[in-house]
Amino acid sequence: MNTPNALSDILAQATGPRYTSYPSADRFSEAVCERTFLDALHDRSLAPAQTPLSLYVHLPFCKSICYYCACNKVVTRNTDLVPEYMEAVFREIDMVTKALRSPAPVLQLHLGGGTPTYLTDGQLELLVLKLESSFVFGAKAERSIEVDPRTVDKERLSALRTMGFNRLSLGVQDFNLETQKAVNRLQPFEQVAHLSESARALGFESLNFDFILGLPHQSRASLQETLRKTLKLRPDRLAIYNYAHLPERFKPQRRILIETLPSVSEKIAMQTMAIETLQAAGYEHIGMDHFALPTDELAVAKRQGLLHRNFQGYTTLPDADLLGFGVSAISRVGATFTQNERDLESYQDAVNMWLLPIARGHVCGLEDLLRQHVIMALMCQGFIDFQSVEAAFLIDFKKHFAREYAALQSYASAGHLVLTEESVELTETGWFLLRNIAMVFDAYLHQCRLLSNYSRVL
Ligand code: SF4
User: Fold this and answer.
1) 159 shares its domain with 292
2) What's the total number of domains in the chain?
3) CATH number, domain at 446?
4) How many angstroms does the Cα of residue 250 sit away from the middle of ligand 1?
5) Are residues 282 and 413 in the same domain?
6) Residue partners of 97: CB distance under 8 A and separation at least 6
7) Which pLDDT value is given to residue 268?
């Protein structure tokens, strides 16, 4: 762990997970298999009160490659692959609902990818109908979909609204033409502006824009211009993710010339400027890379201490069991994480043999659950109340976390958090270091030296 002298030192050097789960997915083991998942579903069915459900469907197809991409996707123009894939997803849904036995309300549905809108409206409608006939959706369920602006128009948005989607997440990345060319993703501002207007007119409740910081040819000036344009459209939420250049792991990134990437110091300056610009425009910093308007329910939940975090990022939903369908999708049922096969063929082969396509996972022990609780408190509230952790897990916080408590002292001395006998609370600069501070409580990082495999924080 670094000694946190200067903020820029830490941002420049540190690496770490994003903690959409603890343990992070790269800790999952192949010892976890179909049987483990079925046991978790069985245990769930025996519980007196049914935990609500959150559903995720991974739709991996994309028409063209974006060079920065690190997602699990299949780039193809052969749309004939879709029906076979959908058949496998439908079969997987059938197998899971059979094992699930009792119905529980679905509070959240998210379609991610890849490019979910690679599917035709008819195919998406079939998928929604399949999900609706297999699960019980709560009346106010959040239904969100990731949208590649290049693949939709007003008519398609209208079709999505008719299918019940009430939230859109647009992959914008950057409005700068030079950057768009360098990453092979051309989408003019006017296109995004038109879609935003249409989404509002159609009554979508929440509009999110995703951006990436650290792409080729980006600078403070270009980012400022992108933000100026963005603020005209005033999305309810914004996420600004840091680009991690790992060409040895992600082949498409080899098309990006390293000399076109902004330096670490420029990235830090860009991030600082982005936060200041968005806050001056009235957005609240939710945590990590996320911002929301004060009226957005994420910002309200943060103010009320009711923010949660799951594989889709920040959410207002209390803990729900997550069922993930499709290639590489992750599920979490009770204390069990499972991940599906990450390769399309292996996924389809398993499902075609009526096997749940589980490739790996993790069953959390009590220590995992304790650390998960502490890390999520930091990620969501920036605050850990020792007494409430002690009451929930029957531990003496400072004794149990003696090493961690000592490690936090240096962050406290540097002004990134306030550490007392009763609690730890992040300061404004501490929110920049969220990942680093959360890493103090990650037992797995102390067990091995795989830090170099993580994406850089910046
Ligand atoms: S960024 Fe999105 S659209 Fe581009 S290749 Fe990756 S998954 Fe496909």
Assistant:
1) yes
2) 2
3) 1.10.10.920
4) 12
5) no
6) 134, 135
7) 86
The answer to whether residue 11 sits within a structural domain is yes
Classified as helix, coil or strand, 38 is: helix
Tokens standing for 251?
A: 């082949």
Enclosing domain of residue 228: 24-323
Domain check: are 220 and 309 in the same one? Answer: yes
**CA 73 to ligand 1 centroid distance, Å:** 7
Helical pair 220-233 and 189-201, crossing angle rounded to 10 deg:
30
Of all protein residues, the one whose alpha carbon is nearest to atom 1 of ligand 1 is: 69
Would you say the C-alpha torsion 344, 350, 356, 361 has a positive or negative sign? negative
| Closest residue to atom 4 of ligand 1, CA basis | 66
Q: Which residues line ligand 1 (CB under 6 A)?
A: 62, 65-66, 69, 71, 73, 113-115, 148, 171
HSE-up of residue 379 (Cα within 13 Å, Cβ side): 27
Q: Each residue of 338-380: pLDDT tens digit?
A: 999 999 999 999 999 999 999 999 999 999 999 999 999 999 9
* Confidence label for 8 from pLDDT (cuts 50, 70 and 90): low
Measured in Å, residue 62 CA sits from the centre of ligand 1 at 6
